[in-house]
What we know:
By secondary structure, the chain is α/β, with parallel strands linked by helices. It folds into 2 domains: 1-31; 37-115. It is built from 5 helices and 3 strands, in the order H-H-E-H-E-H-E-H. A 3-stranded parallel β-sheet has the order 1-2-3. Helix 3 (52-65) links the parallel strand 1 (39-45) and strand 2 (71-78). Residues 31-36 have low confidence and may be disordered.
Amino acid sequence: MFDFILFGILWVLAIYGFIEIIKTIYFTFINTKCRNNGIYLILAVKNQEEKIEGVLRSLLFRFIYGKEENIDNIIVADLGSTDDTVAILSKIKKDYEMIEVLSWKECKEVIEKINNK
């Protein structure tokens, strides 16, 4: 009886593992709808002059040298910063064409355009 229960548990685990392998293969190789549209990353910032460059450069490093090769845009929506956040973002934008610096109203318009594609 103990052998029957043990083999039953092993078969259930084996079937579950097989289903997970099939699911991974399907989403990796067959279903590529997610990758066709690319990745849009939207950051909302306000008065972050001390941190914004480090955050953006670490994200860019991950997207450029990591596995996420389908990034289309990084949209940084400024929520009315009163410090040098916008100047820092403009400087980084010159180095990377995928970055857009927008006000929150312009960001809303871009999101609506993306939704209508």
